[in-house]
């Protein structure tokens, strides 16, 4: 793929992706790097501010890297340190945005699969958006049983600490599996999770568009196009053979 060595964004926080990462993540049957999930979330936050002011006050999209912090013991020996989670908030979010939000969305990566956990303050529950076509309901529950309690407890504590105890206590809220489109390709979880971040209507508890699982490759292409040409991508202009595909201003 003819792109520069890396693309970067400066809005909210810094991230970069090398050409090889793009190739590794956006080919069929490849798992999506967390860098792209975080960058996509940054693009959405910028668009919420610029184009969807009602959404900007309604939802907060947290970085997927926060879930790595919450699930620290899964990947490294040692203990979870609560103060490390606060770093993800202080550099990105105003406390007022957190306190006014009705949806707190967290992309979660676990055992090679992406899902979205949504603290739904409209319905006072934690919605789980999982695109995996699990063979049985038991398998789905077993997968999430390994992480759900920790995410709920640690996210609740982090939000309480960051807002000095003002955020709603959801430590005892139940989990609800929301019916969502199921991926047809085995490694589409990251891209379906990005679509869920953008299109989940927490009030109606469904997507605000139709997502066709058979179009997984097209969804990957659309997401890459959106991110490459987004205003927060600092590595512009792109090479001519790509730049000429940019949307009109």
From TrEMBL:
Keywords in alphabetical order: Hydrolase, Protease
Record family assignment: Belongs to the peptidase C48 family.
UniProt cross-references to PROSITE patterns, sorted A to Z: ULP_PROTEASE (PS50600)
Classification via Gene3D superfamilies: Adenoviral Proteinase, Chain A
Pfam hit, one: Peptidase_C48
Organism, as annotated: Urochloa decumbens
InterPro entries given in the database record: Papain-like_cys_pep_sf, Peptidase_C48_C
UniProt keyword annotation of Transmembrane present: no
Residue ranges of domain Ubiquitin-like protease family profile in the record: 1-200
MF terms (GO), sorted A to Z: peptidase activity
Protein name in the entry: Ubiquitin-like protease family profile domain-containing protein
Highest taxon, organism lineage: Eukaryota
Gene Ontology biological-process entries: proteolysis
Cleaved signal peptide residues: none
SUPFAM superfamilies noted in UniProt: Cysteine proteinases
């Amino acid at each position: 793929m003819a792109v520069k060595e890396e693309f970067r964004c400066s809005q909210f926080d810094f991230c970069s992706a090398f050409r090889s990462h793009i190739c590794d993540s956006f080919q069929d049957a490849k798992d999506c790097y967390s860098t792209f999930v975080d960058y996509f979330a940054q693009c959405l936050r910028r668009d919420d501010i610029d184009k969807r002011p009602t959404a900007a006050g309604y939802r907060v999209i947290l970085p997927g890297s926060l879930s790595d912090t919450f699930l620290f013991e899964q990947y490294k020996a040692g203990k979870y340190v609560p103060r490390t989670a606060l770093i993800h908030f202080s550099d990105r979010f105003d406390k007022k945005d957190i306190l006014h939000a009705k949806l707190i969305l967290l992309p979660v990566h676990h055992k090679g699969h992406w899902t979205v956990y949504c603290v739904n303050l409209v319905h006072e529950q934690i919605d789980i958006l999982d695109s995996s076509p699990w063979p049985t309901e038991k398998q789905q529950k077993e997968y999430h049983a390994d992480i759900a309690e920790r995410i709920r407890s640690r996210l609740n504590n982090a939000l309480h600490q960051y807002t000095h105890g003002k955020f709603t206590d959801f430590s005892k809220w139940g989990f609800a599996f929301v019916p969502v489109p199921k991926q047809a390709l085995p490694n589409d979880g990251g891209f379906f999770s990005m679509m869920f971040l953008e299109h989940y209507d927490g009030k109606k508890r469904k997507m605000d568009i139709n997502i066709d699982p058979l179009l997984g490759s097209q969804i990957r292409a659309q997401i890459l196009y959106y991110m490459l040409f987004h205003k927060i991508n600092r590595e512009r202009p792109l090479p001519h053979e790509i730049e000429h595909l940019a949307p009109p201003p």
